[in-house]
Amino acid sequence: xxxxxxxxxxxxxxxxxxxxxxxxxxxxxxxxxxxxxxxxxxxxxxxxxxxxxxxxxxxxxxxxxxxxxxxxxxxxxxxxxxxxxxxxxxxxxxxxxxxxxxxxxxxxxxxxxxxxxxxxxxxxxxxxxxxxxxxxxxxxxxxxxxxxxxxxxxxxxxxxxxxxxxxxxxxxxxxxxxxxxxxxxxxxxxxxxxxxxxxxxxxxxxxxxxxxxxxxxxxxxxxxxxxxxxxxxxxxxxxxxxxxxxxxxxxxxxxxxxxxxxxxxxxxxxxxxxxxxxxxxxxxxxxxxxxxxxxxxxxxxxxxxxxxxxxxxxxxxxxxxxxxxxxxxxx
Length: 331
Ligand code: NAD
Ligand code: LMR
What we know:
The chain is of the alpha/beta class and 331 residues long. It has helices spanning 18-28, 50-63, 77-81, 105-122, 136-145, 160-174, 208-212, 215-237, 243-257, 305-324, and strands at residues 8-13, 39-44, 68-74, 86-89, 128-131, 155-157, 181-182, 186-187, 195-196, 202-203, 206-207, 266-271, 283-290, 295-297. The protein folds into two domains: 8-157, NAD(P)-binding Rossmann-like Domain (Rossmann fold); 160-323, Alpha-Beta Complex (L-2-Hydroxyisocaproate Dehydrogenase, Chain A, domain 2), CATH 3.90.110. It is built from ten helices and 14 strands. Strand 10 and strand 11 form a beta hairpin. Bound molecules: nicotinamide-adenine-dinucleotide and (2S)-2-hydroxybutanedioic acid (LMR).
């Protein structure tokens, strides 16, 4: 019999919030890291949310999860990131109806520099960071700029929720179960300029545009529905997506840790090294292939002039966001 694994230290920021309330249970249950991997949850919150966080922790206890080896609740960045192998950066303010996600830059941007520094100083040497708090691409850029010691390939921002939305919409239009849709990636920013790449998506292994046979729907209805889906949920719920966002965090981590199935891709925003002509250093949504240990941006995909124009537009937005936060960037 092999020895039990040592517990994995997993930091969740904003753990008393909406997403946190769904996410921590899916980590504690073993769903995120597997049925033989014990975890310690390191939960960061701000002072006013500590009573609510204590309630969440009581509920975690009451689940009696065999894999949950400990819960640390703190307002201290050093304690939160101490020994962390995963840092899931959720804590921040969500947008309200009528706002774009990058309207949050001035509210949330300042959170991520100090967290980047604390990750560099206190996390485990194998730490990986997934930024969820919006605007997540640029918040990831800020955090990373304060942690130059942590290699580029350990930083991710979340486009998985957009990918899931796109897969569901394509499946509904094609009249197939969502599992028949693959190779869906979201290019660029997690914002209303994102490009959910229907051109390279597959339905039952065939190009989605030929299966769907309705270019106008793809270029207009589909594109705008995915770009605006977060806003539509805020309008309907009076609060931003939470359970689906937590589900996308689970999916993002699994897509990094598990080999990508042949013919498929993961959808993640990662630090650009100039792939597909995108500016270096931007945290850019790409199709990613993982072998379970490392990953790379998928090469060789082609885009029409229509798609290229959309990818250029989302690139411009990320450049403008980077310029807007220049005073928050580290070295
Ligand atoms: P929420 O307001 O319910 O919870 C946020 C939590 O963060 C609160 O409990 C708050 O106290 C805490 N917090 C605030 N500042 C903090 C700080 N400096 N350190 C630690 N914790 C802090 O919000 P939510 O619905 O859970 O959403 C969280 C973030 O995730 C928002 O920015 C939202 O826009 C974003 N989001 C991103 C995606 C995505 O796909 N990338 C999807 C959904 C939501
Ligand atoms: C989403 O996509 O649902 C989140 O980013 C929340 C938002 O502000 O849209």
